[in-house]
Amino acid sequence: GGGNVGTQGCVSYMFDEKGQIIIDKEECDMDPDELMMMALDVGAEDFSDEEDSYEILTNPDAFSEVREALEKEELRWQMLK
Fold first, then answer.
1. N or C: which end of the chain has fewer CB within 10 A?
2. Sign of CA dihedral 20, 24, 27, 32
3. CA–CA separation, 42 vs 40, rounded Å?
């Protein structure tokens, strides 16, 4: 075919590094709108409501902070039930 293999990292400029948090809807009692607003408030960049899960995207540097805030909020919701 006349092609060649590029060097390692030669197309890395075409991709963004993101943190990804997937939450199974069956295991999450939180209201989707409240979950989205809370995630965005603590530093998430994007939130999507998929068929059977919620997907939260973050900057890699904010991943731990967002994940910890989500875990604390989920515990609070469970205690209110």
1. N
2. positive
3. 5
CB atoms near residue 3 (< 10 Å): 5
pTM as predicted: 0.79
Q: Please write the tens of the pLDDT for every residue from 21-58.
A: 999 999 888 889 989 999 999 999 999 999 999 999 99
20, two tokens: 């990804």
CA distance 67 to 64: 5
Give residue for tokens 């295991």. Answer: 27
Buried b / exposed e along 54-81 (16+ C-beta atoms within 10 A): bebbbeeeebeebbebbeebbeeeeeee
pLDDT of 76: 73
